[in-house]
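Consider the tokenized backbone below.
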């Protein structure tokens, strides 16, 4: 847990740092150990930012509920809110390499896309269980999360960050 906490805070610090520097996802071929194509780096950044937001959600929830004994509903409200901010800042910097300063309107649009994605996730989860009642819940979650991830990416790419480089 301490390692996860340290990694999360380090990632938040990197995301929050000055965006005037060259984006970390722009690694020259000679400096890269993996020599990923630009599209592969873009997708890796998208997945990494999503994992960072998820780790933030879990960490803050555990801190508030597990350590500070805050009720689960309140803990989750704050953890999701902070995870959404971390995801927005991470995606704008690493996935879409936005160089302009963040603005509230962009965050509100990002939050709208996130809530649409969550809604699609939930509906797909219920639909999968309706179609196949014997389907394990975890399989339905994997399916619905994959669909929601596509919706989320498309919403960010063509909505929130449509004017990206």
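A designed sequence for it:
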């Amino acid at each position: 847990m301490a390692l996860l906490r340290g990694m999360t805070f380090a990632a938040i610090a990197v995301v929050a740092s000055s965006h005037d520097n060259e984006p970390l996802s722009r690694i020259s071929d000679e400096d890269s150990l993996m020599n990923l194509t630009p599209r592969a780096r873009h997708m890796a950044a998208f997945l990494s930012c999503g994992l960072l937001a998820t780790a933030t959600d879990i960490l803050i929830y555990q801190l508030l509920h597990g350590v500070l004994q805050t009720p689960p509903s309140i803990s989750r409200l704050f953890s999701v809110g902070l995870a959404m901010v971390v995801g927005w800042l991470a995606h704008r910097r690493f996935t879409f390499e936005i160089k302009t300063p963040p603005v509230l309107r962009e965050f509100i649009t990002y939050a709208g896309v996130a809530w649409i994605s969550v809604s699609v996730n939930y509906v797909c989860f219920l639909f999968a269980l309706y179609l196949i009642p014997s389907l394990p819940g975890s399989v339905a979650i994997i399916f619905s999360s994959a669909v929601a991830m596509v919706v989320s990416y498309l919403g960010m790419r063509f909505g929130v960050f449509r004017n990206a480089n």
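The chain is about 75% helix and 0% strand.
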